[in-house]
Amino acid sequence: MQSSLRLGVAGLGTVGASVVKLLARHADDLAIRCGRPIVLRAVCARDRTKDRGFSLAHVNWFQDPVKLAMSPDIDVFVELIGGASGAAEASVRAALDAGKHVVTANKALLARHGVELAALAEKRGISLNFEAAVAGGIPIIKTLREALAGNQVSRVYGILNGTCNYILTRMEREKLSFETCLKDAQALGYAETDPTFDIGGFDTAHKLALLTALAFGSQIDIDSIEIDGISRITLADIEAADELGYRIKLLGIAEMGPNGIEQRVHPTMVPKSSAIARIDGVLNAVAVDADYVGELILVGPGAGGNATASSVVSDIADVARGTALTNMMGRPAGNMQPYRRNATERLQSGYYVRLSVYDRPGALAAIVARLAERDISIESIVQRSRAPRADAPGMHARDVPQPVILISYETSERAMSEALDQIRADGHVSEPPQFLRIEQL
Ligand code: NAP
Ligand code: HSE
Questions:
Q1: Active site residue 207
Q2: Does 3.30.70.260 match the CATH number of domain 345-438?
Q3: Separation of alpha carbons 374 and 379, rounded Å
Q4: What is the tens place of the pLDDT at every residue in 323-365?
């Protein structure tokens, strides 16, 4: 058996602690599979006194992740701190400079600095592995980078954030508030340190940017992604979607067109009969359309300590076996093509619109006319049952807004948002209209 592979793990939170426990639990089997023992030599976190559910008696403690990254006592630096800058960025750069292999789950860092870090690793002939950075326990990085090497990918899309899918699922099933579901997701270790990254769609965008680069061989371009999160989704939308035969999912979609790539992240109404609609809770799904293999869909837990640790350890095992690639994106960093953004008019889709309309004669007709002015045809329109009326003296039925749900035929986002701006300006609605794209996936 070869000499042991020595690890330094920085970050002992949800993911780091699970990695340490997995390595201890499966040490013997991993040594057999990899042909050498994998040994935890050193760790780093902020608070040395915190109980993490395992003993640190036989490992060295570092207070500074940069010092751990440069330690001559480790072969692999495992970065599980998080964040696009600060300690995570400094320590990953230090590790690569010192010639250490790096394993990270940090999509925020790679979405910002991935191409540069890939070039640095390549120059040093070491690996920078990031299976855990996208879709938790789903092995999508290896699938795109290695298993699909013989394919041209035309589209990659999916549910890429466990926290958001967990929130939407529980809101639908249990009629719970957004805030309650988010708190539970945080308690379960699914959410980012700042959950705005999850619910604002930014975490999905970080992951999508990495998938896009792997799928199309382009440079990573997070700034080209249109990002819309789920914070504006209400129980009323989820219930309306359910009644209309849809579910609401936060999707990341990247498509190659004749004029370039389109990347977008937004909450989407998908038919209940579609595969993606049936992905519930913390599960993620990544679908890939490719020329030779056809359509692939990978489903699995997208967040949480154990599922993520599974991916981190698979990257460590590749280093131990000597099979880890030294080009992080499956091609030389210098060969990643400049990102070419699709410059054509945005794609067309159907839309779901929810309006709170004052119950006044002609209001509905005026709304329909505004849509027609922009060539938007309506597939269905439903005026929901009258909301309980306030008893305030002098209050009329016309002052009480009524929920109206519209489904449009295909139109552009620009046409729809211009029409809704106009409807709002006309004064027929009591609050900003809600609208969501419908995708027939
Ligand atoms: P977490 O629970 O907040 O843990 C972060 C760890 O980093 C903590 O142990 C913290 O130390 C340590 N830390 C923070 N700043 C530090 C610094 N300046 N120096 C040294 N240590 C520092 O985060 P997590 O959920 O495990 O996520 C870690 C990474 O994995 C992130 O990049 C995240 O995006 C990614 N990820 C997470 C999941 C998931 O389901 N949670 C899934 C996939 C990927 P203390 O414990 O002492 O405070
Ligand atoms: N916060 C992320 C999520 C962790 O909920 O998907 C996994 O990347």
A1: yes
A2: yes
A3: 15
A4: 999 999 999 999 999 999 986 556 789 999 999 999 888 999 9
Structural element, H or E, at residue 152: none
Residue-wise pLDDT tens digits, 206-252: 999 999 999 999 999 999 999 999 999 999 999 999 999 999 999 99
Closest of 335, 134, 135, 347 to residue 260, by C-alpha = 347
Query: Any residues with CB less than 8 A from the CB of 262 and at least 6 apart, and which?
Result: 253, 254, 255, 341, 342, 347
Choosing from 100, 207, 249, 272, which is the catalytic residue?
207
Q: CB–CB of 404/371 below 8 Å? A: no
Q: Choose one of 81, 198, 211 to mutate for the ligand 2 pocket test, by most ligand atoms within 8 angstroms of C-beta.
A: 198
**What's the per-residue H, E or C state across 67-97?**
HHHHCCCCCEEEECCCCCCHHHHHHHHHHHH
Q: CATH topology of 5-133 equal to that of 345-438?
A: no
Question: Does the predicted TM-score (pTM) go above 0.90?
Answer: yes
5-133, CATH topology level: Rossmann fold (3.40.50)
**Which ligand has the minimum distance to the alpha carbon of residue 282?**
2
Distance (Å) from CA 11 to ligand 1 centroid: 5
First-residue to last-residue Cα distance in the chain:
50
Ligand 2 pocket check for 161: Cβ under 6 Å? yes
